[in-house]
Amino acid sequence: MSAYVISEVDVRDAASFGAYRAIAAKTIAHYGGRYLVRGGGANLIEGGPPPKTIIVVEFPTMQRLREWYASPEYAEALKVRQTALDRRLIFVEGVPLA
User: Is this structure's pTM higher than 0.90?
Assistant: First the structure.
């Protein structure tokens, strides 16, 4: 069953964010993930507060997602993330295919 990483991002430093994004993208692909949403326009329809930059990544399984997040490859991106951005990070399981 697919699993998803949902990030709500507030960029702190554009140069560091570019470095983080490049490292993260390579590691995501390496662990079988793919971007579904990567910072496109977001419109608030109900509730609040207004959305920040939204990123959604799909992985084949929750196990694979967790392997990616705990990987030494992604640890390099996490070092850069500290100065690049603030974020909320949510792991969500998908629904079984019928």
Answer: yes
